[in-house]
What does this fold into?
Amino acid sequence: MTATAQSATTRAVETAAAGDVVLEIHDIAKSFGPVAALKRMNLTVRRGRVHTLLGENGAGKSTLMKILAGVFTPTAGSIVLNGKAYAPRNPRDARAHGISIVFQELSLSRNLSVAENIFASHEPSRFGFIRDRALNEAAERLIRELGLPVDVRAKVGDLSIAQRQLVEIAKGLSLPADVVILDEPTSSLSDSEAEILFAIIERLKSQGKAVIYISHRMEEIMRLSDDITVMRDGEYVTTTEKSETSIDRLITLMVGRAMNDIYPPREAPRPSADTPPVLATKNLSFAGKFRDVSIDVKPGEVVGLFGLVGSGRSDVMKALFGMLAPQGEILLDGKPVTFRSAAQAIRSGIAFVTENRKEEGLVLLHSVERNINMVGLGQLTGPLGLMRGGAEREAARAEVKRLAIKTASIDTSAGSLSGGNQQKIVLAKWLQIKPRVLILDEPTRGVDVGAKFEIYRIIRELAANGTAILMVSSELPEVLGLSDRVVVMHNKSVAAVLDADGLTPETVMTYAAGIHA
Amino acid sequence: MSNVQDIQKKAADVEVRRSFLASPTVRQYGGIIISLAVLCVVFSVMSPRFLAFNNFMNIMQQVAVIAVAAYGMTYVILLGDIDLSIGSIIAVSGMVAAQAFAMGFGFVPAVALTLAAGALMGALNGALSAKLMLPSFIVTVATMGIYRGMVSLPTNGAPAMIENDTWLAIGGESFLGIPIIIWIMAVLFVVNHIILSKTIFGRQVYLTGGNREAAIYSGIRVDRIKIIVFTISGMMAAISGMLLSSRLSSAQTNAGTGYELDAIAAVVLGGTSLAGGVGTIVGTILGALIIGVINNGMNMLSVPYFYQLIVKGVVILVAVWLDVRSKSARA
It folds into this structure.
């Protein structure tokens, strides 16, 4: 099968020129029972161009991509690929027709090596036995070609999330394809790793391939795209060339309303310089992860922690939450404390919204209500230590309303909600215990613009009410837009602590990259 | 407004229209209740004695031993773990009681010793698994053998008679016309149901089983939860052993052999997910009833033991398959 696909693709590329239409989608619709996820979607994709699909979560982008990848069958409409009708029966069929898709959901097996994952289901083999050496060599070649900083023999489970995402991309490119679909590939990448990806995309373009790109990050969309199609509520809104539009215009088209300033204004003045910090660290170190980290955060203050992936930022947060036992001091209200477990940190009023909501934040099978009440169970008991069902439901409903969580009911399973709403549930669960210090690790990763705005609003509101907020983010605009002070980490230690007033992205990046004079 | 809300509103409308069939009880236990009904109809047709009230009481008494052990197993499976040692714990606890009576202890101290022995064996399972970070499957395969061997230590493999009247009354007497053994099953049903559905500890069992990482990050001490859960499983097995030894008037070294599989089958038939995080005690007792009805019905029809094993295996496969199918159809 691989060989046929390969020759078919080669032929197609030989005869096709950049700018030729490779994929046409006509009036595609998809309904799940009575629910229409996609209604009359149209799209024309050309060779050698990056075509970005833009829309809020729930706009139907992923449904459309899954139709192209052969996961869903459309209810109506038609697709033409390379001039021929295209109706994939399954993902394997889609690959054979030269459509390759890199999903944002990581689909790798943790116990297999990078090479084994990249060539899963099309391993080089002889008589049904996998040829290990050929497999590793082929993977090595591909990884080197793509310029990825990954060892092909490493187990995927030992890699960082960012490295896994890069492996996922390599997997998507391991078979020749006419159309490469990238679904939020940068959501877990730092800037330097994103650059690697952008270089790969440029190469795909120059090879005459069409790239369909999905992302929520406006800066990179404006940088990479040739064409941009906006979707809203399962429908086609418009397609423009990048040169003829702007970020503001795109956001307006996407949300159907103008959003002048995505970072809401401060609701209360910054705490004064002599306010004593709630939480501080003195020379905090953990062998191999970070060293000599001294930071502090005051009540009502937002401190942004910025650093490239691998700079140690997430591990510092874990240490503050009792998940690592570091050397050095952690001071709560000026007094040294030692947290041996998350339970202890929580009792001291520290809350931690982790980087991976699906793994560490939510029980996806359980209802919205159960997830929201996960941490604050102790507040909801009545006589004999029994749970008060009414109080639980009331608490959950109040949070759903306050954070504008879009869910059919509080009994809906958390796993069925969109990323933005899941992230709000994680926030809601921590707000239950009214934390004094809220640690946020990538609070808006994989979240659409509308939900992002609401999460920013919540952060502002909490700060105004005196919560001390430590926010780790790899989105520089977000760090600059929300923080009062910015801690920049480089190579596992603090490079600078900067006042956010008048701070430019360039200054932060020079510290983060370790090139500040 | 947004598409998401739109979709959800429509989904909610559909749900209302289907409300009867979609009522939580029917949705959750429909498959198993139908299976139970079908089995009862089949056996009544084939054997007229099956429907007699006496036989009903008989089934319930047989179910009690499995059901009580299965209550404990429910906690363990909710956590995503497994306890294969409960059959052995059942035997050990009977022997502990027999030895206590032989040494001249009264009823209450004997019960206390038996419960303590069960709790200790269960806690050991939990502690080994949690602290040494070993899979509970491995730990309890090992302790299954260890505990089974320990049963024979006091008597060198011989059974021990139990002659305490109060103890024997558990399996032989009735209260308000209902055998005491059934009362015990019913009271423990209520207690365990409340613990799992109404206490913080119960919630934490579900949360830990549903996503261990998220539970740790939410401040749940998952190791402690595991040790408590296995302790409960050991205690329930000990009570199950009390019921069995009372019915048999003796402690047998091979008592309870294979009961762990019946208990696991009851829990899984009751809709508890082997992956953890989802399930109820209500489901477990329904599952135990299915096992009891199959055992009883086939005994009445004089089906040979080896055929019974085959039938039971097939029924479990079919029931679980039906359950999984109906759940994925809804999802």
